[in-house]
Amino acid sequence: MAGSHLHTVWFHPEGISAPGGSAALPAGATGGALARFLRETGLRAGIASRLPPAAARRRLASLLGVRLAKTAAVLALPAGAAAPGPTFFRAAARRLGIPPERFLAVSGEAPFLEAARRAGWRTLGLDCDAAQASGPGGAALVERLRMELPLPAGKLPNEWLARFLHEFLFQDPSLLINPGVGEDIAAVDVTGEEVLILKSDPITFATDAIGQYAVLVNANDIATAGADPRWFLATLLFPPGTTPAGIRGVLSDLSAFCRRWGITLCGGHTEVTDAVVRPVVCGTMAGRVRRRELIDKRRMRPGDVLLMTKSAGVEGTAILAREFAPRLRRLGLPASEIARARGFLERISVLAEARSAAACGGVSAMHDVTEGGVATAIAELAAAGGCELRVDLEAIPVRPETRRLCRLLGLDPLGLIGSGSLLIACRPGRAPRVERAIRHAGIEVTRIGEAVGKGAAVRGFRRGRPVPWPRFAVDEIARLFA
Questions:
Q1: Nearest 10 degrees: Cα torsion 1, 69, 123, 326
Q2: Can you give the three-state secondary structure of 417-479, one letter per residue?
Q3: What class does CATH assign to 154-293?
Q4: What pTM did the predictor assign?
């Protein structure tokens, strides 16, 4: 059943206002849709109220048109005007022998819902006017409840897929076949385009703002070829217990950030599966570039200057602040600094600096820093470009926020996932022009090294002395998610 992961819906009558301030629903508003919904899903309905049980049932009937049986469970709220705290809701779940995540609290009072949420309950906030919340026969309320029910494992049901896709506009004239129920591919007209650039990358670490990460991490790779990212497909995998509302939120983020960067969200796949324990987005991006403007790392040669934009661990700093804020607070990091670190999320695009650099000419290679941090990215660039690189480790910029978060959590910033930072190899005569163009775009850029010969090694230096190059078997942040 749709509601098999949810046990009881707890209505809070005092938190729901009567339609237009009246004492009861108009005649004929029987709450039939709500009653059928509860019956068909097998969900239990209960009341959380300070009123005597009979009075609470009457009030709920007058507000939402659904009449609960005398045997319906009642949670007696503590006396007083203040909302109960999380302890009350935790104790209620223990007393009833049901995990708190299988309870849904329905109210229009924010403090009531916040306390329930902090205790692990699911929550549904109603508009203060029950007429808006219930609608004829409770149909609108049923719709809200259905959005909060965990989905079964498997593909997103076609009913939800059709509804969610209907909310998006597909206006790119080059998109010949739109996403839709029964459509497993997207068709794009690339007539006249000389080179189509393709890229695929999953987002597995971040759950907060996962849509933004997915779009930008894939778009960044396209931009390193000198191309404009144009088309995006996403495979969305959600763990059991995910609700339609949760899926809709990710889809909305994907759509919004694609629009922001002029990218068309043109297809993908969505399902709930026990193969994952947190949401995963696997993105595939396609872009285009004129053949003569294609940036191929194999064009690197000795003498090229190595530049780095922004700083080490940009993406990782944002993830740490968003996913581990309580732990960082316990370790003594002020909330204001955590907030600044969370804001690094707005810096993970390299599209602006990639476009600025490419327009200058003389760029032989670009490589964005991702998993494994800047140390891994530099080693990858050396291997792809076939050039030995000499790098001043002390020149690699690390922001104070990144340094402090890594120190508290025992991580090395040089091995921290770093989308938002771009490595650029360019001819020495063009390097000053490239640096000026990037700074003119409002982006920091630092000269950190140079190509010194053919090969694939990286030679690290500190204060002019050679040091072993740092290597990371896995990204530093992965150790926190293990």
A1: -100
A2: CCCCCEEEEECCCCHHHHHHHHHHCCCCEEEEEEEEEECCCEEEEECCEEECCCCCCCCCCHH
A3: alpha beta
A4: 0.70
Q: Considering the domain 8-148, what is its CATH architecture?
A: 3-Layer(aba) Sandwich (3.40)
Q: ∠ CA 67-69-73 to the nearest 5 degrees? A: 110
**Residue pLDDT, tens place only, 374-428:** 999 999 999 999 999 999 999 999 999 999 999 999 999 999 999 999 999 999 9
Which structure tokens are listed for 427?
Answer: 């001819």
End-to-end CA distance of the chain: 33
102/150 Cα distance (integer angstroms):
10
Q: How far is CA 352 from the centre of its chain?
A: 22
CB 295 within 8 A of CB 358: yes
Which strand (E) or helix (H) includes residue 49?
Answer: strand 44-49
CATH 3.90.650.10 fits 297-481, yes or no: yes
- ∠450-456-462 over CA atoms, to 5°? 45
On the 0-12 / 13-18 / 19+ scale of CB atoms within 10 A, 270 is: buried
Q: Which tokens go with 343? A: 């804001």
Q: Is 54 exposed, middle or buried (0-12, 13-18, 19+ CB in 10 A)?
A: exposed
Amino acid at 450: E
Q: If DSSP codes are grouped into helix, strand and coil, which group holds residue 365? A: strand
User: What does the pLDDT look like over 290-308, one tens digit per residue?
Assistant: 888 889 998 999 999 999 9
Name the helix (H) or strand (E) containing 36: helix 32-41
Domain ranges of the chain: 8-148, 154-293, 297-481
Structural Rg of the chain based on CA atoms: 27
